[in-house]
Amino acid sequence: MADPLSLAAGLIGVVTAAAQISSLLIQFTQSSKDAPQTARTVLSEVDDISGILSHLQSSLLGDQSSDRSRTQLLQVDQVVTIMSGCVLTFSELEQLLDGVQKEGMDLLDRAKWARKEKEIGNLIQRLQNHKGSLSLILNVLNG
């Protein structure tokens, strides 16, 4: 695998993107008692991915005890592809949230969200796929 330090640096960008999405979703879900359950589900998935990315970064930097020979089991292009997929999904989530008012949900916002439910469901599935892939990478690193 390529330099773990380079991958760890790349993870910072993905963690930053996750933090931005998480911040938007927290604002959205806390400001409206009627926020849809799917918004809370997306927030949970984003937070889970963020935690895994932080652990992965720690493993790559050697903060946690991971056998350096285990990093050789991973191919850098696979890790980069997964990280790129996360960034793309976060970007799509951000675009989707741009169209919805963050301070309290009125009837129009609920209608906008309902119209996007299928798209949101697809994004949740992609987030879960990313989470699973990242978890597997972390398991490989930590044995």
State the gist of this model.
This protein has helices at 4-31, 37-61, 68-71, 76-98, 107-115, 117-142. The protein has 143 residues and is mostly helical.
Write up this protein.
The chain is mainly alpha-helical and about 140 residues long. Helices cover about 80% and strands about 0% of the residues. The chain contains 6 helices and no strands. Helix 2 (about 35-60) runs parallel beside helix 6 and helix 4 (about 75-100) packs antiparallel against helix 6. It is elongated, with a radius of gyration of 17 Å. The two termini are about 15 Å apart. The mean pLDDT is about 80.
Which characteristics define this entry?
143 residues; mainly alpha; 6 helices; 0% strand
Rg (C-alpha, Å): 17 Å
Number of helical segments? 6
What profile does the largest beta sheet have? none
The H-and-E topology, N to C, reads as HHHHHH
Overall mean pLDDT score?
A: 81
Residue runs with pLDDT of under 50 for 5 or more positions: none
Shape: elongated
Beta-strand percent range: under 5%
Helix and strand content put the structural class at mainly alpha
Q: Please tally the β strands and state the result.
A: 0
Query: What gap, in angstroms, lies between the N and C termini?
Result: 16 Å
Report helical residue fraction: over 70%
